[in-house]
Structure formats: structure tokens, C-alpha cells
Amino acid sequence: MIREITDTTILHNGVHMPWLGLGVYKVMEGEEVVQAVAAALRHGYRSIDTASLYQNEGGVGQGVRESGINRNEVFITTKVWNTDQGYDKTLRAFEESRRKLDCGPLDLYLIHWPVKGKYRETWRAMERLYEEGQTRAIGVSNFNIHHLKDLMQHSRIKPMVNQVEYHPRLTQKELHHFCRENHIQLEAWSPLMRGRLLDHEVLTRIARIHGKTPAQIILRWDLQHGIVTIPKSVREDRIKANADIFDFELSQEEMTQINDLNRGQRVGQDPDNFHF
Ligand SMILES: NC(=O)C1=CN([C@@H]2O[C@H](COP(=O)(O)OP(=O)(O)OC[C@H]3O[C@@H](n4cnc5c(N)ncnc54)[C@H](OP(=O)(O)O)[C@@H]3O)[C@@H](O)[C@H]2O)C=CC1
Ligand SMILES: O=C1CO[C@H](CO)[C@@H](O)[C@@H]1O
């Protein structure tokens, strides 16, 4: 029998967040992002991950509004960029993102990177936005354990989500454990390693066994690890296929074989070695 996975995880403040979302980094503002969001919502996605950095919040909002789906059924995440960190600047950046999205209160607002000397102040602004009901949840991105501990020691509200690079080559075991213990939902960015691992023999073999694609195998592996996943695509066939991951189950042995692909290898920047 297939272990059933519900559509959403429940964050520590009780808010439901879909396990699967569409990532829109490098998706062009305008027609491209509007079409990608429309396709995702047509194929059952109920979550979109953007950022002010991606410069496509306007099209994300348009895609959601034009979908005809109730706004409260779609979960929208955006992020405050590094140069906007600090208390006042974060409040202004939030206002700008919300104006572009034009979708009412936000669902999740994230600190994009842990900018040293800034992120505590940024978080104070996020707490205010949350308490004012302007965003239903707040969280962080690219935070390592020491950043999370520091933030938790110096703030009132614990982040609800930590979005980090996570895929079979970077399984972030300690961070995952820390987040689970502290009820901080881990979310995987670049879950498909930007397409670089999809022809790996372990993944193609497991994919053949289940009649699935290697991408679907990775995304299912995320779900079975209790990790929210946000693959990006602008192709409708891939958007559709990437969502078709709720009708099969990886065995424990298959999960282990995928875990063993870990090499601590990144496709993006290292948060402890990032020059902001
Ligand atoms: N918080 C942060 O710092 C970061 C957050 N993110 C978020 O995470 C999201 C996902 O990460 P991202 O870096 O985009 O990379 P992904 O790992 O999602 O990979 C996206 C790439 O894989 C291709 N692809 C998608 N589906 C398939 C498939 N089924 N088969 C083959 N190729 C496929 C896409 O091409 P195509 O579009 O042509 O299908 C694209 O080139 C981002 O879009 C963004 O929202 C990403 C980086 C950093
Ligand atoms: O969200 C993001 C998209 O990818 C970029 C390049 O890796 C990251 O820097 C950024 O955090």
C-alpha cells in the first residue's frame, strides 16, 4: 500500500503550506511567468515561490489572479533581497513586493540570505509584518544551524520555514535534523540540481522500476523526507510531470540509495562563504 502524503504540511503556527510548489527563478517577467504560473495551477500546484530578486512578482500575481482559483487556495512566497535588509528597508521592500504581487496578504515572507549584521533587524521587521497580519507566515532561507540558533536567541518568533539548497548531492543531514527538532519546515531549492543529475544511473534505474522519470524520483524522495519542494520549469509537460509524484512510493532501500548520492556538493553559493 502506498503511504499517502497529504497536499500540505502544517507549519508551527498552524498555517498549511503545500508540499509542492513551482519555483520561478530565471522565469521572465510578463508572458513567460504568467504562462508558467497558469500551467502550474492548471496541473494542481497550489504554491508559487518567487523573490524580489527574480523580478517577476508582477507576473506571478497576474497568473494567480487570472487563474480563477480562490486566492486563499494558493500559497505565495516571496523574499526580501540582501540589499534591502535592515528594519525600515525590509518594511519598504515588503510593501513593494506586495504592490507588485497585488494579491492581498502574503502567505510566506522569507529572508533570502543571512546577511551578517543585518538579519536580526530584518527579522524584527518580519515579526512586525506577521503580527500585523500582512503575511501569514515568516521564515528564512540559506540559514545554517548557527544562523538559526542566533536568530532564535535574539527574537520572539521562531522561523516557520528554512528554504535551502537540497538535492541528492547535498542532503544537509544535520540541518534537516535541527529543523525537524525545532519544528522549522525545511524547503528544498534547486531540488533537481538544475537538471545536472537526471541521468545518474541510480536515479534512472529507480525511475524505470516505478515507471517514473528521474525528476519525479527526486521530488518523491523530498516528500518522503518531509521536505517541501519547489522545482522550476517553464515547460508545461515538465510542470505537469513534476507534480505527478503522489501515486507511488520509494522503498526504504531506494531512499537509502538516493541518500548515498550525497557529496556535499552545491550548485549555488555557500551561505557561510557568500559575499553579500
Ligand atoms: N532561496 C534561494 O536562495 C533560492 C531559491 N530558489 C528557488 O527554487 C526554485 C527551484 O530551483 P532552480 O534553481 O530553479 O532549479 P531546479 O532544480 O528546480 O531545476 C530547474 C532546471 O531543471 C529543468 N527541469 C525542470 N523540470 C525538469 C524535468 N522534469 N526534466 C528535466 N529538466 C527539468 C528546468 O528547465 P525548464 O524550465 O526548461 O524545464 C531548469 O533548467 C527556483 O526557481 C526558486 O524559486 C532557487 C535558488 C536559490
Ligand atoms: O534565489 C536565488 C536564485 O539562485 C541564485 C543563484 O544561485 C541565488 O543567489 C539566489 O538566492
From TrEMBL:
Residues 26-262 form the NADP-dependent oxidoreductase domain. The keyword Oxidoreductase applies. Keywords: NADP, Oxidoreductase. The keyword NADP applies. It comes from the Bacteria. Coiled coil: none annotated. It holds the Pfam family Aldo_ket_red. PROSITE patterns: ALDOKETO_REDUCTASE_1 (PS00798), ALDOKETO_REDUCTASE_2 (PS00062). InterPro entries: AKR, AKR5G, Aldo/ket_reductase_CS, NAD(P)_OxRdtase_dom_sf, NADP_OxRdtase_dom. Gene3D superfamilies: NADP-dependent oxidoreductase domain. PANTHER family: 2,5-DIKETO-D-GLUCONIC ACID REDUCTASE, NADP-DEPENDENT OXIDOREDUCTASE DOMAIN-CONTAINING PROTEIN. Belongs to the aldo/keto reductase family. This is Aldo/keto reductase. It comes from Salinithrix halophila.
